[in-house]
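Hey, quick one: can you model this chain's 3D structure?
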Amino acid sequence: MHIPDGFLDIKTTISFWGVSIGFLSYAVKRVKEELDDKSIPLMGVLGAFVFAAQMLNFPILNGTSGHFVGGVLLGIILGPFAGFITMSSILTLQSLIFADGGITALGANIFNMGVVGTIFGYFLFKSFLKIFKRNYIISSLISGFLAIVLGALTCSIQLAISNTMPISLGLPAMVGFHSLIGIPEGVITSLVLTFIYKTRKDLIYVKNLGGAK
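Sure thing. Here's the predicted structure for all 213 residues.
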């Protein structure tokens, strides 16, 4: 899902840079209002965990591979805006140090994995908590899966409007492939959240999860 340099045209690049910067500005304002003593160290620890986890690829099929993204997990534990800032920092470091995602495409990548994957993923989780009677295991599994699929959807749209790949080809390819990646994404999100809930649930932004036995 990390779009390289040269895959997006100028108008798409500038547009998504603008949208992502707008979200980032608002997120910084919200985090300053909500910040407490444990927030910054927790952002650093979780950021390092997700950064490392994203570097580990797992096989999918026919020689392809995927990796954990972690947007929903960051949103649930840190809150949607602190989680978004953390994800944006991860993607920026990956782009600058490892060339994993282009610098010019960073705005689009932050939108796909930060805005869609973290902020929207967080609100998906909150919605599923209501639907599944506060069962955080099922809610985190489904929202983790959907965040990956929806991020792939917006990525395919960005490539289509840049005339890089027609939507008729890009949409089924991106969404189909990332539907497979979304399965371990949901499972890992659920497992990590369960571990933290059972050991240090005071660290989780979403309170009163309830939960499955």
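One thing worth noting: The chain has a mean pLDDT of 90.
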